[in-house]
Amino acid sequence: MQKGLYKVLSNIPLTSNVFKMVIESEEPVNVSCGQFINIKLEGLYLRRPISICDFSSNTITIIYKVVGTGTEALSKVKEGEDLDCLIGLGTGYVTTYTENNALVLGGGVGIPPLYGLCKKLVEEGKKVRVVLGFNTKEEIFFEEEFKKLGVETVVTTVDGSYGVKGFVTDAMEFDYDYFYTCGPLPMLKSVYNKTTTSGQFSFEERMGCGFGACMGCSQKTTTGYKRVCKEGPVFYKEEIVWEK
Amino acid sequence: MGKVDTKVTLCGIELDNPVIPASGTFGFGYEFAELYDINILGTFSWKGTTLNPRFGNPTPRIAECKNGMINAVGLQNPGVDKVISVELPKLKKVFNKKVMANVSGFSIEEYVETCKKVDKLDEVGWIEVNISCPNVHGGGMAFGTSPEMAKAVTKAVKEVTTKPVFVKLSPNVTDIVAIAKACEEGGADGISLINTLLGMRIDLKTRRPVIANKMGGFSGSAIFPVAVRMVYQVAHAVNIPVIGMGGVDSAEDVIEMMLAGATAVQVGAANLINPFACKEIIEDLPRVMEKYNITSLKDIIKGVN
Ligand SMILES: Cc1cc2nc3c(=O)[nH]c(=O)nc-3n(C[C@H](O)[C@H](O)[C@H](O)COP(=O)(O)OP(=O)(O)OC[C@H]3O[C@@H](n4cnc5c(N)ncnc54)[C@H](O)[C@@H]3O)c2cc1C
Ligand SMILES: Cc1cc2nc3c(=O)[nH]c(=O)nc-3n(C[C@H](O)[C@H](O)[C@H](O)COP(=O)(O)O)c2cc1C
Ligand code: FES
Q1: Which of A47, A220, B80, B169 has a 20 to 30 A CA-CA distance from B229?
Q2: Range(s) of the domain holding residue A15
Q3: What is the CATH number of the domain that holds A134?
Q4: Which residues does chain A have within 8 Å of residue B32's beta carbon, measured at their own beta carbons?
Q5: Mean pLDDT in chain B?
C-alpha cells in the first residue's frame, strides 16, 4: 500500500455515466492487476474503492460508473487537481495457473480490472478470449482497447442490440484451461455454475478502511473468513461460499 | 522555543504521548506497522477479543455518514486463545511497548475467563473491558446500560486480575456519570469512553437499512462534541483516570479531550480514513502545544476552566 496525492492527468466520459481517469504519481507505483485504489473525496467520510484498470511505472488508470454521491464527485474532478488515494490495495489476479488458454468474463464496471489482467496474460504469451457483457449497445466501452491487446474479444448485450444476444455465459464456447471473472453478483454465480475448470473471481463489498484494519468487509470462504480488501478482492473458485 | 513534554502516566505506566489507536480500528497493529514504526504510539488497544472465536455480523457492515461512519462488525475476532498464540507473537515483532488488551463478553463468566488469560501476558499493560455488549443472561440488555451490571462485571474482572482495568463505557445511556461511578465502586482503575453511538442509515433507492444488521455504531468526527461532554462529566465525577475518545482526528482534538479531563486519548475511525492519522497527530502535537503555551501535557488534564 502507498498513500499520496496523485495528479489527475485526465478524467473523460466513455459512455453517459462511465468515466475513465488517469492519475500520475511522483514515485514509482507498486501495484498489480486486480488490485484496487481507495479514493478520498471532499465532503465524504469514507474512501471509495475502484479497481486498477491499467498502470505504468508512474500512472494508474481507473474506470468507474457514476452510481452515487462519491462517484458523482469523482466525475467532477478536473485535470490537474490532486486526489488523495491509497493505492496497491488487496490481492489481485494470479496468472500462473493458466497453462495456455484463458477465458476472461467481465460484466459492466466489472470489466476494468480485466484489462490489466488481459495485458499481462498476453505478455506471458497466453491465448485469451475475453467476453465483455453489457445491457445494451449504448453502455459498451473498451471493446477496441481489448482488441488492440490482441485478445479475441466478444461482446454480449442482454437486449441483443450489439454482438451476441444474452449474458457473458452465453459466449463461453472456447477451449479454456482456466478462467478469470469480475462483475455483478448474479453474473459471478452463473459463471461459477457454468465453468468447468478452476478460476478466479473478483468480489465487491462495502469497506471501512480498504487495507485490512476494520473487519468491515469479511467474507466466508471454504478456508475460513477472509477480508475482501486484503486477502481479496480476488478469490479462487474453490474458496467461494455463496451466502447472499 | 523550549522543548515540550508529551509524556503522560496511565496507572503507573509512562506513555511517550497520550495517543492510542482505539480498539477495532487498528487490528493487532501489523497492517499499520507496514506503513510506519508503531512504537511511536503511546500504546494501542487491540481488536475486541472474546473467549470464543466470533465471525461477527453479516455484510454490509459499514455505512457512510456525514463526518462519520456506522459499523456493525460484531466483534469479529479469532478468540482469546488464538489471539495469544497467533496474533501476539506477530505483534511482538513490530511493537515493543505494553499493549492495551480490549476484552468483550456476553456473560460475566466470559469476561472473567478472557481477562484471566490476558492478565497473564507480559505484553499487556492494561485491560480495557468493553461493556457495550449485550448480556445474554440479562435479556440482551447491554452491560453498560445499567449501573448494577456495570459494577458486577467490573468487580468480577477485578477479582481475577492484577493489571490496571479500564472499563469502556457505552454512550447509549441516560446517565453516563452513574455508570462511571458504579464502575469506580466496582474497583475499576480507570474509565474509557466513549464507545460508538447507536445509529442507522436507510438507502433511498431500496428503502432498506444500509447495514445488514439494521443498526450499528456511529463514530468519527461528528461525535466529537458528545464525547468531549461525556469525558468532561465523567472526569469531574470520578477519582480514577479517564481515557477519552470519540471523533478525535487532530492534535487540537487531543488537547481538547485532555482539557475536558482525559489522561490519554484514543483515535478510532480516523485511522481507517487515513492510516497515518496517529503518526500525524503525534508529530503535530509539539506545534499545537507551543501554539497554546503548553509545556507539559500532564499539566492540562482536566484543565478546563
Ligand atoms: C474492490 C472494489 C473494486 C471496485 N472497482 C470498481 C470499478 O473499477 N469501477 C466502478 O465503477 N466501481 C467499482 N467498485 C464499486 C464502487 O466502489 C462503488 O460504486 C462506489 O463506492 C460507489 O460510491 P458512491 O458514493 O458513488 O455510491 P453511494 O451508494 O452513495 O455510496 C455509499 C457507500 O457505499 C459504498 N458502496 C456503494 N456501492 C458499492 C459497491 N458496489 N461496492 C463497494 N462499496 C459500495 C460506497 O463506497 C460508500 O461507502 C468497486 C468496489 C470494490 C469493493
Ligand atoms: C470498525 C470499528 C470497530 C470497532 N470495534 C471495537 C471493538 O472491538 N471493541 C471496542 O471496545 N470498541 C470498538 N470500536 C469503538 C472504537 O474503539 C471507539 O470507541 C469509537 O469508534 C469512537 O471513536 P472514534 O469516533 O474515534 O471512532 C470500534 C469502532 C469502529 C469504527
Ligand atoms: S475494509 Fe476494513 S478490513 Fe476490509
Answers
A1: A47
A2: 2-89
A3: 3.40.50.80
A4: 213
A5: 96
